[in-house]
Amino acid sequence: MASIAELRAEAEQRFIDYPIDLDDGATVRLRNLLRLDDKGRTTAQALLGAINETNGADSDDMSRIGLQERAIRDFLLLVADKPDTLRAEVETWDLPLLLLVIEQYTETTQLPEAPSSAS
């Protein structure tokens, strides 16, 4: 029989966050979506939808690019364990850096595959 402490430790290993070291030396953890409350997950899904919606945008469509930048920044602040620490710095990041951070975050926090059933 597993204890809650053991299960909690396993959950920490399986559903990991993405730590990121900021230029000022602080570390912020970008939390796994499963660690957000219902409202946070709903907001995160909407922001991810906005990010993905603008992915195929024409490079000439500056308003769509601006919307994508804002959606990525808002998403990162939502999942950050210390949004106030991240806020000032994330506002200085250009779009290529934002895209790289969101790409690495999604790869790192991707849900593991469900175990196959024994049937």
TrEMBL record:
InterPro entries attached to this UniProt entry: Gp24/Gp25
Pfam families reported for this sequence: GP24_25 (PF17388)
Designated name of the protein: Tail assembly chaperone
Source organism of this protein record: Streptomyces hoynatensis
